[in-house]
Design the sequence.
């Protein structure tokens, strides 16, 4: 019997196969090194855990639908007022909502390729078309090419900086150009899931640059990466104006972020020192892993995130398969050519040593 409700055909999302996503968490990650999902290897801030625990006791009550306390905390640091901040069950939920807010059937959305697929999933759900624009060879979004892909039907342009799965960042001039030249009839979405890892090197300050934009914009950020809270599912969207937030409110489910998650996120955001230490440790390990992989002859892309994307003279998919056989999950990418590349999350120190040793063994065996 045909299903009475038409189900949009959404392309398969580039998620790792199920055996690479074991449900049992465990600290540390047990026998399987989970270096495929860009999770943090460390636990959330102890203050966040305590806040979640305390909130659990009030679990008979719905959470604050407006997330007022968390919004106030984020407003104080970002300068974006609470009436322009929206929360999601992870920033992934908000990326789908960006498409739902901006697009109708037949519209177009310009996106880099490859990139994080969730905004694209939202685009497909609305019946709009994705216009894919290849990344630059260094793994950053190609702003000039994306601007050239805009047509009168374009209603959304998605930038991901640092880009997943490649790790590179947009420079200030390019970001400024996108902010200026994306038409006001088009929602500019800037996904900054790895924003906290990109700081410290004179990187562009997106929110300051956005002050000059006349059209609508959204910047999405998350507690899943630098705040080590992927399992609690909290993301937020900073919006150009209150009207845009009202657009999100129309489609958002009631109480979409749980009470313990909201409490944990607020405590984690306030414990900035813990987040900074987690980021510093991750960046230090990333650079150690980079040096090790370069010694093995890998080409390592510039990374401003908690992962490295690497290429070598051989099949990345075959290497990922071999590593999986040794209990190490990494993500193989079909980019930029037939050999592809590997995306390796920065794990705990021993996981990084393990992945390096396993790769070295594989290269010797090949
Ligand atoms: N954007 C990017 C670029 C990501 O890499 C991810 C997660 N890997 C997300 C958004 C979504 O993260 P979350 O839903 O956990 O906030």
Sequence:
């Amino acid at each position: 019997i045909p299903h009475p409700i038409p189900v949009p055909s959404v392309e398969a999302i580039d998620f790792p196969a199920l055996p690479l996503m074991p449900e049992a968490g465990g600290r540390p990650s047990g026998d399987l090194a989970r270096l495929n999902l860009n999770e943090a290897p460390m636990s959330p801030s102890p203050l966040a855990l305590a806040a979640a625990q305390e909130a659990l006791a009030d679990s008979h009550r719905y959470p604050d639908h407006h997330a007022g306390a968390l919004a106030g905390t984020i407003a104080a640091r970002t300068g974006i007022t609470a009436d322009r901040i929206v929360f999601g069950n992870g920033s992934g939920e908000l990326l789908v909502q960006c498409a739902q807010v901006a697009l109708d059937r037949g519209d177009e959305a310009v996106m880099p390729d490859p990139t994080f697929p969730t905004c694209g999933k939202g685009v497909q759900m609305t019946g709009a078309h994705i216009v894919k624009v290849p990344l630059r060879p260094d793994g950053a979004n190609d702003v000039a090419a994306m601007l050239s892909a805009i047509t009168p039907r374009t209603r959304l342009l998605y930038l991901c900086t640092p880009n997943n799965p490649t790790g590179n960042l947009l420079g200030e001039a390019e970001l400024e150009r996108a902010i200026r030249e994306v038409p006001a009839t088009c929602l500019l979405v800037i996904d900054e899931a790895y924003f906290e890892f990109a700081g410290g090197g004179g990187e562009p300050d997106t929110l300051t640059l956005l002050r000059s934009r006349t059209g609508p914009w959204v910047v999405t950020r998350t507690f899943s990466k630098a705040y080590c809270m992927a399992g609690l599912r909290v993301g937020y969207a900073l919006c150009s104006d209150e009207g845009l937030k009202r657009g999100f409110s129309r489609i958002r489910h009631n109480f979409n972020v749980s009470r313990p998650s909201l409490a944990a996120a607020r405590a984690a955001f306030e414990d900035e020192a813990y987040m900074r230490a987690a980021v510093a440790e991750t960046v230090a390990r990333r650079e150690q892993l980079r040096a090790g992989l370069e010694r093995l002859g890998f080409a390592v892309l510039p990374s401003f995130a908690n992962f490295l994307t690497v290429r070598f003279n051989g099949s990345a998919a075959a290497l990922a398969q071999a590593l999986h056989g040794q209990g190490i999950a990494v993500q193989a990418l079909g980019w930029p050519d037939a050999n592809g590349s590997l995306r390796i999350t920065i794990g705990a120190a021993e996981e990084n040593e393990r992945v390096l040793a396993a790769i070295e063994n594989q290269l010797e065996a090949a």
